[in-house]
């Protein structure tokens, strides 16, 4: 069967067995297969990665007025569920060594807020955070660690999958991620009770009864059997995607690393990234110059995420850090990294960038 054939086969199976609407074999299998892949005991397939973060916070017992420490350099979906729970986010800067949460500022924040309920660390762009140090600090303060691995499925830290270190890990299968079901997410944990509870909340908190009985607030957060069929097919091509993404990154590196204006994302010997996006930072050249030149040729590129503490919606909240995430935002570019790009496409991108760097 061709790579693309798996999704169709699993989706067809859902139709053949009349399991189109919620739940069914694909959902169970997708959970099992993903759990096997990352080597964790339990997984709940949900409608999005955002829903997974929300249920992780809820299961932690995060409630109105509680403090949750959150990496600032990320997509807003990491922080929004803190607000859904009525809790208070406090943002933590990144370090240049990982681009992810700086353990030094995490500790400073915990010193000021020892009552913190949870910490959300992110493995941005498929790079892993300094998870051992962060976990140790969380353990010291007795705080629950949630790993947002939405962008890092396929990444390992010391040979162990990101998303499997904290009490909870979350993955996303949104359209832009390394594998996609068009939309979807997964909550993982080694705690069976936590995952059972998440499935319960995600299906409108229906108590065991013939009639519809509810003793808790519910959510419509479960993944459908059709979407899970696509997910099962996508899991089979994850390794190929990572390989191709790595080749894209290595190509950019080979072509651009000689330019003194360009620095590549951090490489650490304990980290095997999935290379979801190839990102660079620039010195002496504005990211806009590169992005504009690419856009002129209809090639899309993006800045690095704008940190949450700089977002109008979140700027009222406390922030611990210096200017690392801000600097990454102001100097960074995510280069085109789609696995469908051909060698010619990649050469075209590099040619445009080199022209800008040469000041032509
Ligand atoms: C995509 C993403 C999410 C949210 O995932 P959805 O499935 O789109 O809800 C959360 N965190 C990060 C860092 C992401 O990139």
Can you offer a commentary on this structure?
The protein has 360 residues and is α/β, with parallel strands linked by helices. It folds into 2 domains: 3-235, 3-Layer(aba) Sandwich (Aspartate Aminotransferase, domain 2); 239-357, Aspartate Aminotransferase, domain 1 (Alpha-Beta Complex). 39% of the residues lie in helices and 16% in strands. It has 11 helices and 15 strands. It has helices spanning 5-16, 25-38, 49-60, 80-84, 103-112, 131-141, 192-202, 225-256, 287-296, 324-331, 343-357; strands at residues 42-46, 67-71, 88-92, 118-122, 144-148, 156-157, 160-161, 168-172, 185-189, 262-264, 271-272, 278-282, 302-303, 319-320, 332-335. Strands 1-9-8-5-4-2-3-14 form an 8-stranded mixed beta sheet, sandwiched between helices. A 4-stranded antiparallel beta sheet has the order 10-12-15-13. Strands 7-6-11 form a 3-stranded antiparallel beta sheet, with no helix packed on it. Helix 6 links the parallel strand 4 (118-122) and strand 5. The longest helix is centred in the C-terminal third of the chain and has 32 residues, at 225-256. The radius of gyration is 21 Å and the shape is globular. The mean pLDDT is 95. Bound molecules: pyridoxal-5'-phosphate.
